[in-house]
Design a protein that fits this description.
- The complex is a heterotrimer of chains A (278), B (298) and C (431).
- Chain B is mainly alpha-helical and 298 residues long.
- In chain B, 70% of the residues lie in helices and 0% in strands.
- Chain B is globular and about 75 Å long.
- The chains are: A mainly alpha (278), B mainly alpha (298), C alpha/beta (431).
- Chains in contact: A-B, A-C, B-C.
- At the A-B interface, helix 1, helix 3, helix 4, helix 5 and helix 8 of A face helix 1, helix 4, helix 5, helix 6 and helix 7 of B.
Chain lengths: 278, 298, 431
């Protein structure tokens, strides 16, 4: 069998491709491996060269150092994320319904405002937002985060786009039968929108589990802090305790990674869908 | 049937209210207030006065602000460029039949779901100039190791690397989605016409992707202007900003001025400038899309 | 619909605009019985024993101490005060911030409380200049103020030169001598640095402070001489000769001055009166490398003039203006700044604001030898640097200027222009 030039080139091309893919995958995964591996290393082995992936003497002492505060932080993160995700689901679905299935004056204008607000960086309005929270007496309080996080232009947009694909005829039929808008919303729209709701939940979760800036501004008390804030705990003025930092990062990363592993489809499809329909 | 052309006002309001409350109180009002506060020298207490455009004039006259502005622009340029290019390249590769396609796609997207803080901490370890594994490896190979975050010229680069590492997967997925929507027959037609791979890319793929490309670039730019977490954690918190302010992006300068030095009025003015720039850039892109974005290629 | 939205929005804007000024809190009448006060401070290891001791020493007041991590303290306390978070008293970390806090109405003047009988106000009187604004006393010192030269005797031995106290006795411990000694002590390759000075803006002003005049006075008048430039130049040349720990490096790698000294890499450390406390920790945690407890000493800062002057700001406490329990808060901070608090401070190895023989006795456990103890506790003039309402801005500016200068972004020729321009800007734009 003669190997034509094209054949060889194609093989070479393919191999280069796979090398590129594998190399990139390696570069992506390597830092994560470092986190996991360092989390289990005692302080004096962290910077050893050559770096060992499996620690020489694996230890749980870094996690031990977290035992004092981190259960609290983790609980706060869980609690806050749960509530914010729920609240966002509420505001996004109701808003989306109003924008997609109801007709009213000013609808498109308000929606445009919602969309434009996506351009506003949180940091540009954090100072006035902080003052409002202060005046409401909600500083250093989890409510500050729930309230400021309640509105999601992106989520409303996402769900609205999805709702729009549900034929109006379903709704008209229901209206003729005398169903109220609320019934339509709960009995027809929501059940049909399960995929996009799942996507919205995942996006919300990902954002707030990792949110650092808002908690940084609005929380001070130790017992209210969330996981991302807690990760910054170990950089004191005098010394940075890398081991516990990595243990904390480990705790932050692992749940999300696991969810991602099982729900990759939703993440990816959600992102792609937005792009296509946007 | 015209009976339900306009729904009852109250019903509409009841559906709108949940999102509207949050929007009005925590988004719209702060935007207005930002403009208002930027015109004063508010410093957290009851004694403040109106200073008109004083804060703005001062900002543009201050080295630190101009520096932040410049750094933000540089940062935006490079991160957007690399995120889009890498995203595009890998989307094209993974669009074909590749073994372990889902694995690669998942791996590249993975950093995007992780906390920027955790990512920042991990890279601080890796990039540590004296003790980090990367520099130790470089030294071992006889290469003079760069200072990464400690170096005035390399600090921003390091943050760019970390940001691109974390986000290019997101854009890759966006492009993958977009590639799926391009009609196969267009490719076949082009091939029949004798167009080579490169030609096909420019005549079919790129136009087909242009809506997504537009969306991606817009999002990437907005996000680049908002970067904070990595800068904060990798360059030392409130004392940070990198060596000689090399990584003091605009948002960080706002944070520092507002929350570390009480200069809320001035920081608000900086915020308004930030807002303005984002809007202008987005608007320009929006206008530009009419020229180069082709919808309906499908 | 559209109009309704706009009207609603406008209402919100107006209402919150008025609201932005913030509410004023009334003070509740003081109750009798155990009163709990909320006290904010940072996580310095020497501070916890003081709170515990106070709570143990009396039953009327319980101090609920809230610790904020040190790196974020200044930002957090600002935010807390602006948000009128519940707080009765707090410790000030960046002393010059007291001007902004006072200007915003967060600090309660203490003159009325000090006038009451039975109050030991020695600390306030010793540091009067540093705790007064517009003639009103606004703070109660807890820690005294002074910067010293801490030195590692082993490194001097290795280099074969006399320790700084010898020069002090001779009267030759000037800045030039200091630079000379630093160079001699260094290994030249960064393994051992002759000296280190931390990166805080205030620490770049030793020479300037010794002329006893503020750079910007309370009226906004700018008055400085070439001592600022002299230090910047000295720092740069010492860093280039690898005789001084590079500032940018310690900033970015976050190597604390204590670690630099513990590791036995530094011959002389110029830092403030709280350092023996760090040395105690260092000893107890076995962090001292290459030298032991007996191998370090304390002496005066280098000084060019015949009359010794050092620099320093006392660390002090404030009573919050909107606090609910001001009397109790004052009692606590007065206790802390008085003889009892001084003893606890001494036990922690820091120089208290009040010095008594008992205090000296306790301090001797934190200082390795009697001579060092004398230098540590001798009465001396400590100029409070950066203690005007421009102080905080000035500190930040000097910080940035030093970065830029060390990196060559500001040349020697442009130094004065940049300095003056920066100072003028600060004066123009501070409330």
């Amino acid at each position: 069998m003669t190997w034509s030039r094209a054949c060889i080139l194609s093989w070479v091309g393919k191999i280069t491709l796979y090398i590129l893919l594998l190399l990139t995958a390696f570069l992506i995964l390597m830092p994560l491996v470092v986190v996991v591996s360092t989390a289990f290393k005692p302080d004096d082995q962290i910077y050893e060269f050559p770096m060992r992936i499996i620690p020489r003497t694996p230890t749980l002492e870094n996690f031990g150092k977290l035992a004092q505060n981190f259960p609290r932080y983790i609980w706060n993160s869980c609690k806050l994320t749960f509530w914010i995700v729920l609240v966002q689901l509420l505001t996004a679905t109701t808003g989306a319904y109003a924008f997609s299935k109801l007709r009213w004056k000013g609808r498109d204008f308000l929606f445009l405002l919602y969309i434009l607000s996506m351009m506003v960086p949180i940091q540009a309005i954090i100072i006035p937002q902080f003052l409002i929270i202060r005046n409401l007496g909600l500083y250093d309080n989890h409510w500050a985060l729930v309230l400021t996080g309640s509105f999601t232009a992106f989520g409303t947009f996402l769900i609205k786009q999805y709702f729009m694909t549900i034929p109006d005829s379903y709704l008209e039929a229901a209206r003729i039968d005398g169903a109220s808008e609320y019934t339509i919303f709960f009995r027809i729209m929501l059940p049909l929108a399960k995929p996009v709701l799942a996507t919205q939940v995942i996006f919300s979760f990902r954002y707030f589990w990792n949110d650092f800036f808002a908690p940084l501004i609005y929380l001070t008390s130790q017992h209210l802090k969330t996981l991302p804030l807690g990760m910054a705990d170990f950089a004191t003025e005098t010394y940075t305790y890398v081991g516990p930092q990595m243990a904390a990062s480990f705790i932050s990363i692992v749940p999300v990674m696991l969810i991602f592993l099982f729900a990759q489809r939703y993440f990816v499809e959600g992102v792609a869908a937005v792009g296509v329909k946007g | 049937m015209d009976a339900h052309q306009h729904t009852s006002r109250w019903i509409v309001l009841s559906f709108l209210l949940p999102s509207l409350i949050g929007f009005l109180i925590f988004i719209l009002t702060p935007i207005g207030m930002a403009f208002g506060i930027s015109l004063t020298n508010f410093a957290g207490g009851p004694r403040f006065r109106f200073v008109g455009l004083g804060n703005f004039i001062q900002a543009f006259g201050t080295e630190a602000f101009r520096n932040s502005f410049r750094i933000t622009l540089v940062f935006t340029l490079w991160t957007v460029l690399f995120q889009i290019v890498f995203g595009m390249v890998f989307a094209l590769i993974l669009n074909r039949k590749v073994i372990l396609r889902t694995f690669f796609r998942g791996t590249y997207f993975l950093p995007n779901v992780l906390s920027s803080i955790a990512v920042g901490l991990a890279f601080m370890l890796i990039f540590d100039p004296q003790r980090g594994p990367l520099n130790q490896l470089l030294r071992h190979w006889g290469i003079h190791p760069p200072l990464w975050l400690s170096g005035e010229h390399t600090a921003l680069l390091t943050i760019i690397i970390v940001t691109v590492w974390q986000s290019f997967g997101y854009y890759m997925v966006l492009f993958l989605g977009g590639l799926q929507t391009i009609n196969r027959s267009l490719y076949e037609a082009a091939e029949i016409d004798g167009a080579g791979a490169i030609r096909r890319f420019f005549s079919v793929t790129l136009p087909g992707l242009s809506p997504i490309l537009f969306y991606s670039i817009t999002i990437a730019v907005i996000r680049a202007f908002q970067v904070f977490d990595q800068v904060y954690i990798m360059t030392g918190g409130q004392l940070g900003g990198g060596p000689a302010g090399a990584t003091s992006v605009l948002v960080f300068d706002i944070y520092r001025n507002g929350f570390a030095q009480f200069r809320f009025g001035y920081a608000a003015a900086e915020s308004v400038v930030l807002l303005g720039v984002v809007f202008v850039v987005t608007f320009i892109q929006y206008r530009g899309q009419k020229r180069w974005v082709t919808y309906d290629v499908v | 619909m559209k109009r309704t939205v706009w009207i609603l929005a406008a209402c919100f804007l107006v209402v919150s605009g008025i609201w932005a000024g913030g509410k004023t809190e009334g003070t509740a009448p003081q109750k009798s019985g155990p009163v709990t006060i909320i006290y904010y401070l940072w996580d310095d290891p020497s501070l916890k024993p003081v709170v515990d001791a106070f709570n143990a020493a009396q039953k009327d007041i319980v101090v609920d101490a809230r610790y904020i991590p040190s790196p974020d303290y200044e930002t957090k306390i600002t935010t807390l005060l602006t948000a009128h978070a519940e707080m009765d008293a707090y410790m000030q970390k960046r002393q010059s911030d007291m001007f902004a806090h006072y200007g915003n109405g967060f600090i309660e003047p203490l003159d009325a409380y000090l006038a009451k009988p039975g109050v030991n106000r020695e600390a306030v009187d010793s540091y009067r200049d540093a705790v007064t604004i517009d003639g009103k006393v606004v703070a109660f010192p807890w820690r005294g103020a002074a910067y010293y030269t801490y030195y590692n005797k082993k490194i001097f031995e290795k280099a074969g030169i006399p320790t700084p106290d010898v020069y002090v006795k001779e009267g030759t411990w000037t800045w030039d001598k200091y630079a000379e000694v630093a160079k001699k002590l260094s290994s030249g390759d960064g393994a051992i640095y002759g000296t280190t000075v931390y990166f805080w803006g205030s620490n770049q002003l030793f020479m300037e402070s010794q002329r006893l005049k503020p750079i910007i006075d309370s009226k906004g008048k700018i008055d400085y001489d070439d001592q600022i430039y002299r230090w910047f130049k000295l720092r740069k040349s010492l860093e280039e000769a690898k005789a001084m720990w590079p500032l940018i490096d310690m900033k970015v790698t976050k190597t604390h001055y204590s670690k630099q000294f513990y590791d036995g890499k530094v011959g002389m450390l110029l830092i403030g009166e709280w350092f023996p406390g760090f040395m105690l920790s260092g000893r107890d945690q076995n962090l001292l490398k290459g030298f032991t407890w007996n191998d370090w000493g304390v002496t005066r800062l280098p000084c060019d003039s015949k009359t010794y002057v050092t620099q320093g700001n006392p660390t002090f406490n404030h009573v919050t203006a909107y606090a609910q329990k001001k009397d109790a808060a004052f009692k606590f901070i007065a206790w802390m700044g008085g003889p009892e608090g001084a003893q606890i401070a001494a036990k922690a190895g820091v120089l208290p604001a009040t010095i008594t023989p008992e205090v000296k006795q306790i301090l001797s456990k934190a200082i390795p030898d009697p001579q060092s103890l004398e230098y540590f506790t001798e009465p001396k003039r400590a100029f409070p640097m950066l203690m005007t309402r421009y102080g905080s801005r000035l500190e930040a500016f000097l910080n940035d200027l030093m970065d830029a200068y060390l990196l060559g972004k500001v040349t020697d020729a442009e130094f004065d222009t940049k300095l003056r321009a920066g100072l003028e800007e600060i004066v123009k734009t501070t409330n």
